[in-house]
Design a protein that fits this description.
heterodimer, A: about 120 residues, mainly beta, 7-stranded mixed sheet, 4-stranded antiparallel sheet, globular, B: about 110 residues, 6-stranded mixed sheet, 11 strands
Chain lengths: ~120, ~110
């Protein structure tokens, strides 16, 4: 089982460049989300999706776009990278379970540096 | 504002010793509380999940407790091993519009020395 796969693992961008962080899951989970992790802080939600074609903003959405055309994939786009977006990015997927608790599974992260 | 606070920020213990990590939260509405282990350079991995009605849950040498009245949780690690060196993150889930949003603490960085 691959679980949640993120690519690339490392990336260096120049200010103003654009790029897409890829996230794919093979567990047929409905829910997918993107977080960023900064030193001394907890993971913060950027965007999330409750199913194909449905996305919503999280706590820190500015500077990021997402789309969800399939259940498996949830890419995160940086349109014009800024040094403040230097961070470690995690993608997660989870499923809804009636009357229960949805387990969240995380990818291994993408370490992004914007210079 | 929804917040999850963890203490201590970091901790060093000797192999074989026990330790307890603390988590206080102010999250509403409360759905469940989770503890995750995050190894360096890896994504978080779930250790335990507790709902409002559960006050203790174990996973091997890890035992989590929850006091929903005081909004406190703890993670107790017994007979620590070198492989326990990691960050331990307390996460509170809040159900908003049918979606379980996760509010993360900053984590406790544990180092186990031989």
């Amino acid at each position: 089982n691959a679980g949640v796969t993120q690519t690339p693992k490392f990336q260096v961008l120049k200010t103003g460049q654009s790029m897409t962080l890829q996230c794919a899951q093979d567990m047929n989970h409905e829910y997918m989300s993107w977080y960023r992790q900064d030193p001394g802080m907890g993971l913060r939600l950027i965007h999330y999706s409750v199913g194909a074609g449905i996305t919503d903003q999280g706590e820190v959405p500015n500077g990021y776009n997402v789309s969800r055309s399939t259940t498996e994939d949830f890419p995160l786009r940086l349109l014009s990278a800024a040094p403040s977006q230097t961070s470690v990015y995690f993608c997660a997927s989870s499923y809804s379970r009636s009357g229960g608790v949805a387990e969240a599974f995380f990818g291994q992260g993408t370490r992004l540096t914007v210079v | 504002k929804n917040q999850v606070e963890q203490s201590p920020q970091s901790l060093i213990i000797l192999e074989g010793k026990n330790c307890t990590l603390q988590c206080n939260y102010t999250v509403s509405p409360f759905s469940n509380l989770r503890w995750y282990k995050q190894d360096t350079g890896r994504g978080p991995v779930s250790l335990t999940i507790m709902t409002f009605s559960e006050n203790t849950k174990s996973n091997g040498r890890y035992t989590a407790t929850l006091d929903a009245d005081t909004k406190q949780s703890s993670l107790h690690i017994t007979a620590s091993q070198l492989s326990d060196s990691a960050s331990y993150i307390c996460v509170v889930s809040s159900n908003s519009g049918g979606y379980n949003k996760l509010i993360f603490g900053a984590g406790t960085r544990l180092a186990v020395h031989p």
